[in-house]
Specification:
heterodimer; A: Rossmann fold; 14 strands; B: Rossmann fold; 13 helices
Chain lengths: 294, 379
């Protein structure tokens, strides 16, 4: 099993003709993701040439794409100025999941988009996220497929390359993954740690979970309490940003210690206090997972 | 992006919020002239992107123009938390009957703009929240409807008993929300919002931070950026499309991805070193970007070694290796470089780097340990 995406995922790519959209569409198709449609306003009726001569129909709108192809998931590679509108359109089109890769979407636009999606029961992942991959089944986003393997570990993270680092180390010792989810580095994200923990807990094939957080906000602290209250499966945690100074944004829009809140120290303490094994460096994650499974 | 008090007040005035007049001085003589023009007592206020101006002595009351000149003399050039004061705001001193706090920020938990108001004005709101949470009233603004008039009234009603004050404050709260949205702000506050003995409600201080992601569509706000208030290297980094934060250590870090960059800094500390910076070079392997990154890192005289940590996912390691080789051919670095590359086309990358005379590693721990040794001169 896996969470959020699997072999039945039928994907629409919003912004399929752009530089990033077209590159990653090919990567996703090579991995085996069912890319059933693309959307680029004004290019409806054209086709996108995927690998191995597979042609993907392009539509002007999400509405048409979903009506014609029965897509159930969309991924957004649209530039920041138009991304929020693309997310709203997707949330109104009948798909269940909208994966927003775009970095740099104005946060007040996202406040509106999240409220809109919540009203419609649509899940947004991101924005400013690498997407997710269920090894052997489907990949939506930009995660590098060659570092994952099928197996029992669930991975959830606010970061991109740091996640790849952790996943790569897991795979190197033969610990494959059910699903790896990057929830995004923005302050307002659609799917948080708790949503992913809940899904991993419900997934019978996931036996242990890696949770990678960073400075800023209180999502990790709330997730830690949730782990203690609701999870039967072991969780290993890591927090990036122990050396980050307060008040400075560390790359991700959401990675900032405001006043005295959101430090790595308080998050690591929340993990420890709630029974989550804390890795003091990325290389320790694998050992802690092995201990948890032993 | 933070803007200065006087700029935030310009945004407030545009929304109709009552703000006392004020002018900017960059010399004591200018401060004298402005104070003379206003007549009477003035406040001389350091314009700097830092909290705690008052405690640092950057805000002074001047009974007359001569005193304004003297205060400006002391405040201009003053160092407040590492930032030099280049400008002061000179504004008529107001008679204050009461002080309140009104602020709005993007709240992560409710995923919406959230107001906080308190009759305990003039204090640090975090401190009020910690010591007397009952003194704060909060309201989450539904982004679908915006701030509704009865909600603004509900907030104002918490601050005042006098109907005249409540009416004026309701209006100010509505205007503040408008200013927040129109400026693309992530935070704005009036602290304090005062009442005067004759019954007026005014904003005598203003703070505003702008969401960087809004700047592309708000040129009038973007041009408020004061580059004199920022370290040169950070301006250079922004122009090169890199994310850089200077720190106090001596191990220069160049990493792809923000999370991995933070984890690399943490690992430097773990091995007993101190990171000199945060730098996310992004997904690009463009040699120009590598050159910019190296120039920015080496502009810090504390840097004794440069540590690259690259995880090649979509980015190909051999592209990055070529970028590093080309960049170091173009500019003279002067300090040792250690490189860790792993992931896509790793073997090819190591070959390229070794041929160019670099030591390259595949383990993050090994390379960080080596960098810390080099920084300490323990090679």
């Amino acid at each position: 099993m896996s969470i959020f995406i699997d072999s039945d995922t039928r994907l629409v790519v919003q912004g399929i003709t752009g530089r990033d959209g077209s590159f990653h569409t090919r990567q996703m198709m090579e991995y085996g993701t069912q890319v059933v449609a693309g959307v680029t306003p004004g290019k409806g009726g054209q086709t996108f040439e995927g690998p191995n001569g597979v042609a993907v129909p392009i539509f002007n709108s999400m509405d048409e794409a979903v009506a014609e192809t029965e897509a159930n998931t969309s991924v957004v590679y649209v530039p920041p100025a138009f991304a929020a509108n693309a997310i709203l359109e997707a949330a109104d089109s009948g798909v269940d999941l909208v994966v927003a890769i775009t970095e740099g979407v104005p946060v007040l636009d996202m406040a509106r988009a999240h409220a809109f999606a919540r009203d419609r029961g649509v899940r947004i992942l991101g924005p400013n996220c690498p997407g997710l991959i269920s090894p052997g089944k489907s990949k939506v986003g930009i995660l590098p497929a060659q570092i994952v393997a099928e197996g029992p570990i669930g991975v959830v993270s606010r970061s991109g390359t740091l996640t790849y680092e952790a996943v790569f180390q897991l795979t190197s010792v033969g610990l494959g993954q059910t699903t790896c989810v990057g929830i995004g580095g923005d302050p307002l994200i659609g799917t948080n740690f708790i949503d992913c923990l809940e899904a991993f807990e419900a997934d019978p094939e996931t036996t242990a979970i890696v949770m990678i957080g960073e400075i800023g906000g209180t999502d990790e602290q709330e997730a830690a309490e949730y782990v203690k209250a609701k999870l039967s499966k072991p969780v290993v945690g890591f927090i990036a940003g122990q050396t980050a100074p307060p008040g400075r944004r560390m790359g991700h829009a959401g990675a900032i210690i405001s006043g005295s809140a959101g430090t790595a120290e308080e998050k690591m303490k929340a993990f420890q206090d709630n029974g989550i094994a804390v890795a003091s460096r990325p290389a320790d994650i694998v050992g802690l997972i092995q201990d948890a499974l032993a | 992006m933070d803007i200065h008090e006087y700029q935030a007040k310009q945004r407030f005035v545009a929304a109709g919020i009552p703000v006392p007049p004020g002018k900017i001085a960059t010399t004591p003589d200018e401060a004298h002239a402005i104070a003379t023009e206003f007549g009477g007592a003035v406040m001389v206020k350091a314009q700097v992107h830092s909290g705690g101006r008052g405690k640092a002595g950057g805000v002074k009351y001047a009974p007359d123009a001569a005193a304004a000149r003297e205060h400006a003399q002391n405040i201009l050039g003053m160092d407040i938390k590492g930032l030099t004061v280049e400008k002061v705001l000179v504004t008529p001193a107001e008679d204050i009957a009461s002080e309140a706090y009104v602020g709005v920020l993007v709240d992560r938990k409710s995923q919406a703009a959230t107001f906080m108001v308190s009759a305990e004005g003039g204090m640090d709101i975090e401190e009020v929240a910690a010591t007397q949470p009952e003194a704060i009233r909060r309201l989450t603004v539904d982004p679908r409807y915006g701030l509704l008039p009865h909600q603004a009234f509900w907030l104002a009603n918490f601050l005042y008993d006098d109907p005249g004050h409540i009416k004026q404050a309701s209006k100010v709260i509505g205007q503040l929300y408008e200013s927040f949205v129109d400026s693309g702000a992530s935070m704005t506050e009036i602290n304090p919002l005062i009442t005067t003995p004759d019954g007026a409600v005014k904003a005598i201080d203003a703070k505003m931070s702008i969401d960087d992601n809004e700047l592309f569509r708000r040129p009038e706000v973007a041009e408020m950026r004061d580059t004199s208030a920022e370290p040169t290297a950070e301006i250079q980094a922004r122009e090169a499309g890199l994310s850089y934060v200077k720190l106090d250590g001596d191990v220069g870090c160049c990493v792809n991805g923000a999370g991995l960059a933070m984890a690399t800094m943490d690992l430097v500390k773990y091995y007993g070193g101190e990171p000199a910076n945060f730098l996310d070079i992004g997904g690009s392997s463009n040699p120009d970007k590598v050159v910019s990154a190296l120039e920015i890192i080496t502009s810090d005289p504390n840097v004794k070694v440069i540590l690259f940590n690259i995880f090649g996912g979509i980015t190909r390691c051999d592209d990055v290796a070529n970028g590093i080789v080309e960049a170091t051919n173009r500019i003279d670095i002067g300090v040792p470089i250690v490189i860790r590359l792993t992931g896509t086309n790793e073997a090819l990358a190591l070959e390229i780097l070794e041929k160019a005379g670099f030591s390259a590693y595949t383990s993050m721990d090994d390379v960080v340990e080596k960098a810390v040794q080099l920084a300490k001169g323990e090679d």
